[in-house]
Amino acid sequence: MSRMKRMKHEDFSEMLELEALGVLDQAQSEALRRHLEECDVCRAELRELRDTAAMLAHLAPPIAPAKETRARILERVRRSRLSPAESSASEEAITASPPRSFWLKWGLLAASLVVIICLALLLILWRERQRLSAELAQAERTERQLRTELDRERELRALLAAPQTRVIELEGTQVAPHARAKLAYDARTGRAILFATNLPPTPAGKAYQLWFIMSSGEAMPGDVFKAEKGDIETSFFIPPIARNAKAFALTLEPAQGTRVPTGEKYLLGSNS
Asked: Which Gene3D superfamilies does the entry link to (predicted)?
């Protein structure tokens, strides 16, 4: 019992397949039952394994009875139609051959063990297939992420190579002295990319908003961005009227953005 109490979650997890097949001994099964009362993960996995075992059992081909078994059944039917004396003599003849009964029992036991082993192997293969499917899904997500990063890098290279591209350096203000940003945009098409680092993470219900400071001093509203980890890397378009802005600023505003600045300036850069 003390050994069972020291068992870890991983030990019980390895017992689930045997429990699904019903081959655990009583002590192990009882220890696993107590663990299942407290572990939602193992309970869910055991249900899934039992469902799979049941499905595999239905899929397993039926085993034809051995010739000895068939002969014994036919003999019992025949004896049911004989006279008492004949039936007694036949019974003595049957019970006088213990070797056949011995090998019949062992044959049936061996067949049962073969079925259990096959089910266990099928369960192992099924779990391996589930693991490989999860790894494949993760690989596909990684591939999509790499493709996105590659597309963004190509977009940046194309933007920087454009003859009308301007690159603006934005410096952190007193509220974010370590923040830095670069704004690159094509003055002809308005295509732009913003890279910002070391910003305070965006509070709930807030967003950073870009502003175009015109020569008249008017601040035109731009896009809003999130910076959960303090960084921004995004692409957008600057409207034609704002491409000759005198300066660019980033403020903290309500998440939906505003028409006029209401929050502190976190980044500021001149378009000179």
From this structure: Anti-sigma factor, zinc-finger domain
Domain that holds residue 43: 2-59
User: Which residues fall within 8 angstroms of residue 152, CB to CB, at 6 or more apart?
Assistant: 233, 235
Q: What is the CATH number of the domain that holds 257?
A: 2.60.40
Asked if residue 7 is part of any domain, the answer here is: yes
**Residue 159: count of CB within 10 angstroms of its CB:** 19
Number of domain units in the chain: 2
Cα dihedral sign, 8-9-14-18 = positive
Overall pTM > 0.70: no
Beta-strand runs (E) in 137-246: 165-172, 180-186, 191-197, 206-213, 219-225, 232-237
CA angle 169, 170, 172 (to 5 degrees): 140
22-79 confidence digits (pLDDT tens): 766 788 888 888 888 888 888 888 787 776 666 555 544 544 545 555 555 455 545 5
The string of DSSP codes covering 76-137 is: HHHHHTS-HHHHHHHHHHHHT-HHHHHHHHHHHHHHHHHHHHHHHHHHHHHHHHHHHHHHHH
DSSP class of residue 189 equals: T
